[in-house]
């Protein structure tokens, strides 16, 4: 099965999935190009259901869609073919107690159709790549959280998939472990040209490695697009880092009708300027008040703020409030 | 995450060769499942116990022939008592150690005691652990059908059953030929070998499905042992008591192992009237119960497969 890289990774048209009377996915229309995509949403947003549909575990209840050129409404045998192209790293442990790390990864390779000898060779290769030295010969049930995450990533990568589906990959990791895993994912995506679909509720992870984001809430897409495009530029809000006579600088700014929102001890200020204000005028004010501006940047909305803003809408009738952020990614990006 | 933030110099190469057909995963799953069982010390203990029954029959057959040839009409002293050899032979006759169809049917019956414990242990390891550790997600995320997963696991169970029933029984059949009439025995009793295969196949199919089903329900070894004790010991005692009290053979249908035994005897072509203890249910009824159990197991596994996806 071959997937041309110039085609969209995922196209969904009014896709929905019900569990009895519960609508896990209500109506999703979305086009995503290959790349690093973050799937954000609170619990019960429909992230897991969407991943199950992408993995071919569940057919949609309504609507259509294509994932890597495979119809999501196709018979199960055809949908299963998708898993040759996809590596899935589940949130749950999903280990086989009694097997060593290398046996576990080689077994994953065999299940994906790799001959036994090649599967073992690739298992060693990928575990080297993930920097698992002698630990690979230990039973997987004795691994720490970080090592379990790595071995789960290894089993997802062993058959050289084009797309990695990662379900909460940094859950349960300490900050150093989280940072290391994110570095590794960035490297896999950039150096080996793998697309990543990262389902998480940790916004910082998405902000760190994803270039696109889809915000889901109550089974609907609240926002989808490039991370930078989705963030509200907030017009005339700025972040400053200053030193020197900050008291005088604050008085001068107030005289020019610049409101100070936040003033931290390290000299970082968040301010709102009048509509006709230009950034150059900060330097003029600083010169007059004997202060030094070390850093001046527009104050962008954080992904967390974006997320909270998006999920605060209760239903799709609020699309008007969302403006063009609710556009499918292909159109907005 | 030791060392992962250091610069990684090693790479991994793309896979560009053809992949095998998905059903080849059945063999891989079966192999890994057996590996997991073989790594448990308890398994080797149980296997050793299973082999005891085999060696008892193996040497019992030899002893029978040897006694018949050497001391058929003599009296020997055992533990200070004079025992007439013909009396000893009558006692051994009850075990039917003459290489007849009853010999192998009895052997498989006796193996059943240790086999059920072995299967409880294996089932909880193969199926129970997969549920406890959420390993089903691992399997289902690969390009294989859920049925390949079950077939692979059942293949491992079937291997264990074959190893403890069919293979030893076949060795006993060959031994009987060597001890008795040589080629004449083999030519006259080739249908017995088919009977061994049929009985073993039936046990393998039924018990592998039953193991999968009960392991998915109970998951851990101890509750599974209790459930199987209820099924194979408690129901058996109850069935025996009811059959003896009412003289109605159909009560023995509650005894699942007896049903399998009856189906096995049918495979050997044994006359229903020679089956002991009496009364016994008819072959057809025993087959019906076994078929019902197989169907229920398959339905449960189908349902559970879907539920695991929804979880």
Mind explaining what this structure looks like?
The complex is a heterodimer of chains A (333) and B (311). Chain A has 333 residues and is an alpha/beta fold. In chain A, 35% of the residues lie in helices and 26% in strands. A six-stranded mixed sheet of chain A has the order 6-7-8-3-9-10, sandwiched between helices. Chain A has a four-stranded antiparallel sheet with strand order 2-1-4-5. Chain A has a four-stranded antiparallel sheet with strand order 12-13-11-14. In chain A, a hairpin with a 4-residue loop joins strand 12 (259-263) and strand 13 (268-272). In chain A, helix 3 packs parallel to helix 5 (145-157). Residues 314-333 of chain A have low confidence and may be disordered. With 311 residues, chain B is mainly alpha-helical. The longest helix of chain B is centred in the middle third of the chain and has 32 residues, at 101-132. In chain B, strands 1-2 form a two-stranded antiparallel ribbon. Chain B contains twelve helices and two strands, in the order H-H-E-E-H-H-H-H-H-H-H-H-H-H. Residues 1-10 of chain B have low confidence and may be disordered. Chain B has one domain. At the A-B interface, helix 2, helix 3, helix 4, helix 5 and helix 6 of A face helix 1, helix 4 and helix 5 of B.
